[in-house]
Every structure is written in C-alpha cells, then in structure tokens.
Amino acid sequence: EVQLQASGGGLVETGGSLRLSCAASGLKFDDYAIAWFRQAPGKEREGVSAVSSDGSTYIADFAKGRFTISSGGARNTVTLQMNSLKPEDTGLYSCAATEYFGTTPAAEAMSHSFYYWGRGTQVTVSS
C-alpha cells in the first residue's frame, strides 16, 4: 500500500519561508513522479511542483524563483522549500504520487492523473 505523509506546514508572515516534506512509502515501480498540489478554499486544486524518477523537476510559474523541490536526504523523502511566501500561497498543500511503466518527465507528469494522495498540510501566510 502506498502511503504519503506531508508535514512542515504552518503559519508564516509574508516574505517568510517554510519547508514541506513528503515521506513516501510503498512505491514499487522504477519510474514514478511525486508532486505537490495546493488548494485554497473556494478555488480549484493546482499543481505546485514535482520531481520525477528521471531527476527532472517541475515548478509552476507562480512559484518560480521562490520554491525549490528536491529529493535529497532519505530516498523516500521529497522536500519543497518555499521562500518569499505571499498571502496567495495560503492553502492546503498535498503530496501526491503516481507510477509509470517508462520514464516520464516531471512536467509531463503534471498533466496525468496522480493515483496516490496524502492527507496534506496547511500553509497559511498572513498579510
């Protein structure tokens, strides 16, 4: 069974930083993608960032220059470093994963369905 546990959310002032972590377990395929999505109340869920097993990464335009995704540390841990946070970054950040038969770049993965989802961690940026 695939398990995804997100952590690191919290309350931060505008311009502050947070580091989100996604601990993944149970993935069996050699090719996979792990991504962060966020959703604010009354708004649709949107992709934030992703990393693929081929080493490629994806960063949404609104996050470029501010957010960085990496898979350093534990092999099953993906980290999203968020700097220069803005109030519009507020939302529930969820970690998701999907597996592929064949290498899939992170950017392409964002157009596909993610089959496994974690509970999510709340990020709140005050004005």
Layout of strands and helices, then pairs:
Blueprint: E1 3-7, E2 10-13, E3 18-25, E4 31-39, E5 46-52, E6 57-59, E7 67-70, E8 77-82, E9 91-100, H1 106-109, E10 116-117, E11 121-126
Parallel strand pairs: 2-11
Antiparallel strand pairs: 1-3, 3-8, 4-5, 4-9, 5-6, 7-8, 9-10, 9-11
Q: Main traits of this protein?
A:
3% helix; 127 residues; mainly beta; 4-stranded antiparallel β-sheet; 11 strands; 7-stranded mixed β-sheet; single chain; 1 helix
Structural features, described:
With 127 residues, the chain is mainly beta. Helix content is 3%, strand content 50%. It contains one helix and eleven strands, in the order E-E-E-E-E-E-E-E-E-H-E-E. A hairpin with a 6-residue loop joins strand 4 and strand 5 (46-52). It starts with a strand and ends with a strand.
Condensed summary:
The chain has 127 residues and is mainly beta. It is built from one helix and eleven strands; from the N terminus they run βββββββββαββ.
